[in-house]
Amino acid sequence: MDTNIQTVLVDEIEGALGGGPPIAVATVTGSGDPPWLIPGDKLLIRSDGTYVGGFGYEEIDTAMIKLAKQSLTGFPRISIETIYVSSDGHATNRRYQSRLGDAELMVQIWEAPARLIVVGGGHVGLAVATFGEKLDFAVTLIDDREDFANRERFPMAEQVLVGDIEEQLNSLVFDQSAHVVLVSRGHLQDERALKAVIREPVGYLGMIGSQRRTQTVLTHLAEEGYDQIDLEKVSTPVGLDIGAETPEEIALSILAEIVMLRRGGNGGRMGRRMQLEVGEDLKN
Amino acid sequence: MSSEIFREIREASEAGEPRVLATVARTRGSTPRKAGATMLLRPDGTFQGTIGGGCGEAEVWQDAMDTMADGTPRLTVVDLTEPIDGDDKICGGIMEVFVERVTE
What we know:
The structure holds 2 protein chains of 2 kinds.
Chain A: H1 3-17, E1 23-30, E2 42-46, E3 51-53, H2 58-73, E4 80-85, E5 91-92, E6 103-110, E7 115-119, H3 123-134, E8 138-143, E9 159-162, H4 165-170, E10 178-182, H5 187-197, E11 204-207, H6 211-223, H7 228-233, H8 247-263, H9 270-283
Parallel strand pairs in A: 7-8, 7-10, 8-9, 10-11
Antiparallel strand pairs in A: 1-2, 1-6, 2-3, 4-5, 4-6
Helix pairs in contact in A: 3-8
Chain B: H1 2-15, E1 20-28, E2 38-41, E3 47-49, H2 57-70, E4 74-79, E5 94-101
Antiparallel strand pairs in B: 1-2, 1-5, 2-3, 4-5
């Protein structure tokens, strides 16, 4: 690989991982048959559409830039995928749509790790933060009680914020990488926190509570003129239905829902899904 | 995890030392790690990160050492569906791993 693009790549990937704008990197992994692309050749595409490198075919570069721009603005983001390309610029991520002789490219999105913002440092908040960190989320913990929001209790958190919940939330910058979980000690705190976040472009917003209690909160917000579209975004009651009872089980249910939405799963049971897939294979 | 790998790549580049990066490009079926998992190999054969522990890592490691030596990128297809010597491989899927030198 070219030394210059290698240096640029490492710098820009580090920048993206450190919180800068996400970037896409396309790498030739299969040269095609007969070979027409060079394995290891790369094209770096930034969020603003500018790029570095290339494959020596203008049609391919153009197709990949277009595709990368879609990937960079899409959600949930596909962090890596294989693209089949023909020399005329035909590009697809479906093997069955690929053509004879297509080369293969690996397209990777580099971005800062997803953030998990947990409001409430009680039993559930502690379990959500603990499991969330294991799942590679950068965790922020917010509570207005210092006994519940401190480094000893939350060593796994990147950030522990103590103080008025609304003020602390307002100090954060929200985007699609932010996953907000409201598990504070009472519905009044959750409602205030919800109001602070509901209009923000977050990737996930979940609020704990029973059907009745959460419905009351949503009704309050609707009466105060919050948009129905924003209210419908709220995952509440929070989590997947796994029959969770303990704080840890509830945390598992919440994170299962977040992972499902990020990865595009359906929350069903694998055993049943596998049976469907076998059926699909028989058809093809 | 990724940040640590890229920090090592940058430091190795600055020191003029080679590194080989193995990236799981695609998987089918049940595999230990999913696409995007990375492993960074050093000239002495030690590495940072994992693309799957026992399941196929040795095959990728060998290819990565070859790439370290000749600089040629490789796409290693690790088939975890075939039993070897009567032992069932417990992972059961297929993994494509792209191996490339990431320093000059």
